[in-house]
Amino acid sequence: MRIVGIICEYNPFHNGHLRQLRLARERAGADCALVCLMSGNYVQRGEPAVFPKQLRVEAALRSGADLVLELPLTVALSSAEGFAAGGVSILSSLGCDRLCFGTESTDFDALLRTARANLDPAFDDLLRSELETGCSYAAARQRALERLGAGAGLSSPNDILAVEYFKALLRQESPMEPLPVLRPNSYHADTLDPAAPSASALRRALWGGKQRQSLRPSAPWLSAVPEALHALYEAAPIHSWEAGERAVLARVRTLPDDAFASLPFGSEGLWSKLMKACRTCASTEEILESVKSKRYSRTRIQRMLLCAFLGLTKADLELPAPYVRVLGFNQRGRALLREVKRRFPLVNAGERPIDEAYFALECRAADLYSLFSTSCPRPAGEEKRQRVTVWEDKQ
């Protein structure tokens, strides 16, 4: 059985994701298995997922995924490079034949050249010299790559991640073949395109066009998600950073110095700058705005802030994930599980693993997730109560 791996977040699952799944199966063969390695309750940009992971699992299975696994928390909250490398490593170990991902560029060879240039031994020195000129990290990286005769694919989030996937495949000498899928429209488009929605426009529409101040979703955003999922989404609990802001502030205002010093992404004294902002600013928005700079993006600071709230250290994020959780499957996915579970440690949702330390980390993160709910927080212990979602297609 040919296996196609997809590293995803589905925050939330929309028509663009449905198109990718259909194209992946069309190109790899109708009898292939689609394995989705999905972020859990927190996403790579350093925020809580809008909907809980089990609901997003069901959305994926209803839409054509065969097996949904959880991208370990410490991988999901890594940089783009760590996110891609961790996902590629897991899918390669599971025996996937292809890695399917979206791009906004039609020149896939140019993306591959950029990835190769990133791995060139001369790249780090060139990047360092460009940073010394005082330009932003993004500009310095672009200039360094151009000096190596590359640089395409660093202007949009999907292409940036595509380059990271190519890098991971090359660096790990993965047997997976890349299966890029052209993504229509722009990732940052302001207008909601139902057929190919941008993540930003979709979430803005979900919150009623008022960023994330509204506590109820508005109907128009449902035009951008598969009709079969409408009822699932309409009854779902919603989560937002704003709903949990006071919980975050209560945590970070009382953290000791050494906790800030041990945070990931805090090199070159960035942790100290964040610590000072947490102890003087009135809101998380003020913290993010005061700490970000040309060199350090807002997303990086947001991940640091979330890691501080969850109690994740630099050492935590550097450790390889000891296992991957099985979140859901259909009949084809069940058959695939029998084959791949011999290749990589898999643990069912809700099952207690041997690695108690990592399990404690997962449980803590799950308990804190419900504090971001725009309705009432749920009781603690949810990670232990989770069960694998089994989807039986009635058609």
Give a description of the structure.
The chain has 395 residues and is an alpha/beta fold. It folds into 2 domains: 3-122 and 153-186 and 320-390, 3-Layer(aba) Sandwich (Rossmann fold), CATH 3.40.50; 243-316, no CATH class. It is 45% helix and 11% strand. The chain is built from 19 helices and 10 strands. It has helices at residues 15-28, 53-62, 73-76, 80-94, 108-118, 123-131, 137-147, 157-171, 199-206, 230-234, 245-252, 257-261, 270-278, 284-291, 298-310, 314-318, 331-340, 356-369, 382-385; strands at 3-8, 33-39, 42-43, 47-48, 67-71, 98-103, 177-182, 324-329, 346-348, 389-390. Strands 1, 2, 5, 6, 7, 8, 9 and 10 form an 8-stranded mixed beta sheet that branches. A two-stranded antiparallel sheet has the order 3-4. Strand 8 (324-329), helix 17 (331-340) and strand 9 (346-348) form a beta-alpha-beta unit. It is globular. The two termini are 23 Å apart.
Structure summary:
With 395 residues, the protein is an alpha/beta fold. It contains 19 helices and ten strands.
User: pLDDT under 50 segments (min length 5)?
Assistant: 209-215
Radius of gyration: 20 Å
Topology order in helix (H) and strand (E) letters: EHEEEHEHHEHHHHEHHHHHHHHEHEHHE
What is the level-2 CATH architecture name of the largest domain?
3-Layer(aba) Sandwich
Distance between the terminal alpha carbons, to the nearest Å?
23 Å
Helix fraction, binned, reads 40-55%
The proportion of strand residues reads: 5-15%
Structural class: alpha/beta
Total helical elements:
19
CATH class of the largest domain: Alpha Beta
Largest sheet: 8 strands, mixed
Mean pLDDT, to the nearest integer, reads 92
What is the CATH topology descriptor of the largest domain? Rossmann fold
Shape: globular
Number of strands: 10
